[in-house]
Amino acid sequence: MDGDYLERYRSLFDQFDVVAAFWVNIQLTLAAGLIALVLGTALAVMRISPAPSLRWAGSTYVTLVRNTPLTVIIVFCVLGLWGQLGITFSDDFNRNFFWLAVLGLAVYHAAFVCEALRSGVNTVPVGQAEAARAIGLGFVASARLVILPQAFRGAVAPLGNVLIALVKNSTVAAAGSVAEASGLMAEMIEFRPDVILAIFFTFAFGFVLLVVPIGLATTSLSRRWTVAR
Amino acid sequence: MSGARAVSVLFDAPGPRTRRRLVWINVASTVVVVGIGLWALVRLNAKGQLDADLWAPLFTANAWRNFFLPGLRQTILAAGISIITAGVLGLALGLGRLSASRTIRTVCGGVVEFFRAVPVLLMMVFFYLGLGRAHVVDPAQLPLVAVVLGLTLYNGSIFAELVRSGVHGLPRGQREAALALGLRRGQSLRLVEVPQAIIAMLPAIASQLVVILKDTALGAIITYPELLQAARRFGAGHGNILQSLVVAAVVFIVINYLLTRVADVLAGRVGRRTAGRARTEPPGLAVDAGRPG
User: Fold this and answer.
1) What Gene Ontology terms for biological process does this UniProt record contain (chain A) (predicted)?
2) pLDDT for position B2
3) In chain A, pLDDT over 70 holds for what percent of residues?
4) Which of A50, A164, A174 sits opposite B287 (nearest CB)?
C-alpha cells in the first residue's frame, strides 16, 4: 500500500458523502425502533394476557411476521402498498420511500421485540407472580407493578440484540429504493473500482462502529439493572 | 414450554366473575381483530384488488411452472449450499476459538466478531460487484456465488459461536474423563466434546436454518432469480405485484413454520444424547439477534 493508494482513498470522501448515507441508516433505525418497541410491547402484553383470543392474535402475528423474509415485507410496502394501492406518507418522493421502509422494518422487528420481552417475563421467578396474587393484585396490577418492571430489566440484553439486528437490517431498505449505506457502497464501487477493498472495509467498519457500542452498552446495562436474587 | 409456564403463573384459574368478564374481552377483541381484517378487505375491494383477474393468474400452471417453482428451486439451492459451507466454516472457526494457541483463538475470534457485525446485504453487494469486476466467476453464476458467500461468512460465524458455547455448556467431567483416558486436548475436543456440543445445539442450528432461508431473499437485490425475484417478475407482467408477493410470502411462511416445528421437536428429542443442555434459542451473543436475519 503506497501513498498514492491512500491519496486515492482519501479523495473518495470529497466525491461521496459517506456519513450522510450512514445517517439515513441511523434515522431508519431510530424511527423503526421506536414504533417496533411500542407495537412489540402491546403484542407482548397480549401474549401474556388471560384472554385466549388476545393471546391467539398476538402469537399469530409473531408466527406470520417472523417467518417472512424482511426483504419480502419491504418490497411489499413499496411495490404493493405504494405502487399498487397508492398509499403515501409524504409528497416528497424520497421521504415517502423512507417512511414506507420504516413501516416495513417496524412491522418486522415488532415480532422480535415481543419475543425479547416475553423472554424477559420468563426471567421473573414464579414466586414473584405468586406473591403478587397472594396480596390480592389482579392481572393488570400485578403485571404493571410486579412482573413488567422486572421483565424489562431481564429483557435488556435480548432487546439490545434486536436493536443490533435492526441497525444491520436497515440496509435492506435498499430493496425499497431508499438511498442508504449499502446503496452508496454499490455506487462507489461502480465509479471507483480502483479502491474497491478499501470501500468495502470502510462501510463494514462503519457498521462495526455502530453495532459494537450497542452490544457493549446493553451488556453493561443488563448487568447493572439485573434484579438481585 | 417455558412460555406456557410464564403465562399460567401470571393469573389464577378464573372464577365465575372473571370468566364472565373474559367472555366479554374475547368478544371485544375478536370484534376488533375481525374488524381490522374486514376494514382491510373492504379497502382492498374498493380499489379492485380482490378482483378475480388479479388473483386467478397466480393459480395457473404457467405461474408455478415458469415463475414460482423455478424461483423456489433457486431459493432452496442457495440455502442448501450455504448451510453446508456455513457448517464447515462454523466448525473450523469454532474449533479455532477453542484452540490451545492464543494466536489462533484471537484471530478466529476477530473474524467471527467482524462478520457478525457486518450486514449480510453489504457482503453480498461487495462480492457481486467485486467478483464481477475481477472476472473470476462465470457471470451466469455470479449472483448465486455472491449470495452463498455472504450467507456463508455470516452464518459460519453464528455456527462458530454455537459450537463454542455448546462446548462451554458441557459439564467439566466430560473433558476430565477424556483426558484421564489418555486423550490429548485436541482429541478430547474432536472426539468427545464437539460431537456432544453439536447435538446439544441442534435445535439452535435448526432455527438458524430459518434465518438462512429468509436471508436468501436478499439475493433479489443483487438480481439472484430466487422466489421473491420470481414473484416480482410475475407481478410486473400481470399488474398484480401485491397478490404475487402475498403468494411468495405464504410459501416462505409455510416452509419456515415447518422448519421451526422441526427445531421444537428436535429440542425435545436430543436431550438424552448429550451431557449438555439442549436449547432452541441461540445462546446470548454479544453481537447477534439470534433469529432476526
Assistant:
1) amino acid transport
2) 41
3) 98
4) A164
pLDDT confidence tier of residue B8, bands split at 50, 70 and 90: low
Please tell me the distance from the alpha carbon of residue B210 to that of residue B71, in angstroms, as a whole number. Answer: 17
B200 contact A CB<8A:
no
- Cβ distance B288 to A133 less than 8 Å, yes or no, reads no
C-alpha cell at B31: 370484534
Q: Is residue A196 part of a domain?
A: yes
Per the structure, the count of domains in chain B is 1
Q: Does B20 map to a domain? A: no
Domain that includes residue A178, residue range: 19-224
Nearest CA in chain B to A132: B10
A222, A168 contact by CB (below 8 A): no
Give the model confidence (pLDDT) of A107-122 as tens digits.
Answer: 999 999 999 998 888 8
Tell me the C-alpha distance between A158 and B221, whole Å.
Answer: 29
* Residue A141 banded pLDDT, cuts 50, 70, 90: confident
**B226 pLDDT more than 60:** yes
Task: Using an 8 Å CB-CB cutoff, list chain A residues near B6.
Answer: 48, 118, 121-122, 124
Would residue B281 count as lying in a domain? no
Provide, as residue numbers in chain A, all residues whose Cβ is less than 8 Å from the Cβ of B293: 69-70, 165, 169
DSSP A66-133: HTS-HHHHHHIIIIIIIIIT---S-SSHHHHHHHHHHHHHHHHHHHHHHHHHHHHHHTS-HHHHHHHH
Q: Is the predicted pLDDT of residue B82 greater than 70, yes or no?
A: yes
B186 in any annotated domain:
yes
| Predicted local distance difference test score (pLDDT) of residue B144 | 95
In a domain, B280, yes or no: no
Alpha carbon A220 to its chain centroid, in Å, reads 20
Picking from A182, A188, A199 by the largest number of B CB atoms within 10 A of its own CB, the best residue to mutate is A182
Residue A60 in domain: yes
Structural domain of B123 = 71-273
CA torsion through residues B206, A33, B285, B280, sign: negative
Domain of A194, CATH number, reads: 1.10.3720.10
Count of domains for chain A:
1
ipTM (interface predicted TM) = 0.89
**CATH code of residue B130:** 1.10.3720.10
- Residue A215 belongs to a domain: yes
| Residue B85 touches partner A, C-beta closer than 8 Å | no
For residue A29, is it within any domain?
Answer: yes
Is the Cβ of B247 closer than 8 Å to some Cβ of chain A? no
Q: How far apart are alpha carbons B147 and B120 in whole angstroms?
A: 9
